Amino acid sequence: MRIFRIAIPASDISASRAFYERLLGMDADDTVPSRIYFHCGDVILAIIDWKVEPLGPFRSIPEHLYLCTGDVDAAYGRAKDLGAQNLTALETQAWGERSFYCSDPDGNLLCFVDDDTLFLGRGAGWA
Fold this sequence. Notes:
three-stranded mixed sheet
């Protein structure tokens, strides 16, 4: 079993498209009119237009969505340039990951982690 798509809501699909295209450094796949897809390796990040596909009251995702990148410094620079909300410092966490946190225009929580420092949950010396 594997995860192939993660969907997060957007209240303004155009603003979210511009934000994610710049933040992720890639073009959106707009094959589906009410969604924009970002192909992140084997997993699709789907941004859902809540005005078209509402599943109840609008709520941002409750926990961070973690994305890994080979150039976390560049991702941090893009987040800073975009004025991403709740942007933290880019730093090495206690568990060894070099990362930063921010949120998108709808308050969806994001974390970007350096590929070389991923903590995958096995063999944690501090656990």
